[in-house]
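Handout, section B. The chain below has 71 residues.
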Amino acid sequence: GRSFELRIRDRERKLLSKIDEAIARIDDGSYGICEDCGEEIGLKRLEARPVTTLCIDCKTLQETREKSVGQ
């Protein structure tokens, strides 16, 4: 019950924060640009995940690094 609600609330708070950041990037003209490599984030990726800050290549690289650190 309670811990599940807290997890949901925490997830919602993080998503709202990411939405605010995405709006700020739209305002400053950097929306849709990967913050790691500076390349454009593909439209399909932005449609699937509008709050993303990484292109698919950099995201894949990040996940690979996280997995290797976790082992």
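Note. The helical segments are 2-28, 43-48, 56-70. Compare this with the example in section A.
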